[in-house]
Amino acid sequence: MQLVFASNNRHKIEEIQNLVPSSIQILSLQDIGCTEDIPETADTIEGNAILKANYVTQKYGYNCFADDSGLEIDFLNGAPGVYSARFAGEQKNDKNNIQKVLHELNGVDNRKAQFKTVIALNLNGEQKLFTGIIQGMITEIEKGVNGFGYDPIFQANDYEITFAEMNQSEKSAISHRGLAVKQLLAFLAK
User: For position 61, what pLDDT does the model report?
Assistant: First the structure.
């Protein structure tokens, strides 16, 4: 089976490739010749995942899945949420986003947060959504060098280390994306 993963984020593509069985070939947007930026104009994580999947299916005709993820921080009323990649500006700079979060939470006791991923799957004319959520907290300093995005400041509940201190397989086993992908794979296996 071939499925397009509507992403140009090489970190996400590697993460997904490592999770799917070899019977499923994952194609990137580059593989299908999609070089344009797919609009992410929805005001929810679910909405952006649906927009991206629909764009690829309608314009290129492929079975496709797309994800959108966000960090939701209690003290910031769920922000950055759908704006996680652009929290510190349109340049989508991970370091700047982390610095902004740490600045906003400076001196704050409530550091509860969650990562949320929604995957929209368009398969044979039908659409299904899969959601993965991992609860945790924002650390006071960056720790670790693995992963991407907010991984150096996110520590999942019941863990003593950040996502950036975990190796890829440890993170994928518990992460928001890993949980959503497991649901996707269970569905595809039926």
Answer: 95
Tokens encoding 18: 């490592």
Low-confidence stretches of the chain (pLDDT < 50) are none
Number of domains in the chain: 1
Q: How far apart are CA 128 and CA 14, in angstroms?
A: 23
Under 8 Å between Cβ of 31 and 3: no
Query: With b meaning 16 or more CB within 10 Å and e meaning fewer, what string describes 10-46?
Result: eebbebbeebbeeebebbbbeebebeeebebeeeebb
- For residue 19, the model assigns a pLDDT of 76
Domain that holds residue 24: 2-189
Residue in the structure block whose two tokens are 């397009």: 4
Which residues are catalytically annotated?
68
Q: With DSSP H G I counted as helix, E B as strand and the rest as coil, what are the percentages for the chain, rounded to 5?
A: 40, 25, 35
End-to-end CA gap in the chain: 13
Contacts of 136 (CB under 8 A, 6+ apart): 112, 113, 114, 115, 154, 155, 156, 157, 159
Rounded-to-integer distance, Cα 162 and Cα 171, Å: 9
Sign of torsion, CA 9 11 14 19? negative
Residue 139 CA to chain centroid, in angstroms? Answer: 19
Tokens matching residue 41: 């104009």
CATH of the domain at 63: 3.90.950.10
